[in-house]
Amino acid sequence: MRVGVHINRFDHPAGGPALAAELAAAGAAAEAAGVSWLSVMDHYFQMEFNGGAEDPMLEAYTTLGYLAGHTSTVRLGALVTGVTYRRPGLLAKIATTLDVLSGGRATLGIGAAWYGREHEGLGVPFPPLAERFERLEETLRICLRMWDPDDNGPFEGRHYRLAETLCVPAPVSSPRPEIMIGGGGEKKTLRLVARYADACNLFATSPEEVRHKLDVLRGHCDAERRDHDAIRRTVTYTGEPVTTGDLDAFLRDMEGYTKLGLDTVILAPRTGRPAGWIESFAAPAVRRLAELG
């Protein structure tokens, strides 16, 4: 099981002027530690559990572009992009740009969006949940169309209409950037994973719950005639040991997950100084987790 790091706070004690250097240091620390994944949230307002909307938040893809310029091996993505935030054609172009400039290290993480306050606050339409899922599926189809070099024709959907699905230059990733769908909804989200995604991301609630979600995903894959093992399976872990720095407690928590065929556990430290945390916690976690198998 590999280790990823999810940067989700930007409240550096020295404020905004210190963030660029801190992020560059975090990228360097992640690669030195053997971390395989580096992500940020795709939100415009900070989450309530992380201090609330008045706390600092950076725009995701600008931040990922900056990280791309300060790293060379770690995979980069938003965990996850809200489908409502950007028009699908523009999102595909943004993700392609990240992929090209990072040398093929981009993942398009995407989900149905949920944070109503930032939509209302910044004037972004926030349709009902059922419509957001419809838009999510159309967005996935549009991205796949734009990444198909043999089909630049129009797209006609219920919510989106594109006269051209042209995307030049093409992604560096072969055959295209990885698509990761976040969430564990059993009727809609995991069905979309089986139909469109290369990776899924679940919350590490418990080994039993994650095993159940993966069984549901397997059922959807069977219905879609998709190889379940072709989907990279990841979990996001936000347990107390990440905050307290208790590596032994973290490893005890992980023991139940190591038998589930998970590719990556993504750790989400709630700190505005992630570089130091990566050096002190994530680096030994990479080594110790590898020993668990």
Describe this structure in words.
- With 293 residues, this protein is of the alpha/beta class.
- It is 42% helix and 16% strand.
- The protein contains ten helices and eleven strands.
- Strands 1-2-3-5-8-9-10-11 form an eight-stranded parallel β-barrel, surrounded by four helices. A two-stranded antiparallel ribbon has the order 6-7.
- A hairpin with a 4-residue loop joins β6 (155-156) and β7.
- α3 crosses α5 (129-146) and α6 crosses α7 (207-224).
Topology (SSEs and partners):
Blueprint: E1 2-7, H1 19-33, E2 37-40, H2 60-69, E3 75-78, E4 81-82, H3 88-101, E5 106-111, H4 116-122, H5 129-146, E6 155-156, E7 161-162, E8 178-182, H6 189-196, E9 199-203, H7 207-224, E10 232-237, H8 240-244, H9 247-254, E11 264-267, H10 274-292
Helix content bin? 40-55%
Mean pLDDT: 96
First-to-last CA distance: 7 Å
Largest sheet: 8 strands, parallel, barrel
Order of helices and strands: EHEHEEHEHHEEEHEHEHHEH
Uncertain spans, ≥5 residues at pLDDT below 50?
none
**What's the total count of β strands?**
11
Q: Which range does the strand content fall in?
A: 15-25%
Supply the helix-strand structural class.
alpha/beta
How many whole angstroms does the radius of gyration measure?
A: 19 Å
Shape: globular
- Order of strands, widest sheet: 1-2-3-5-8-9-10-11
Put simply, the count of helices is: 10
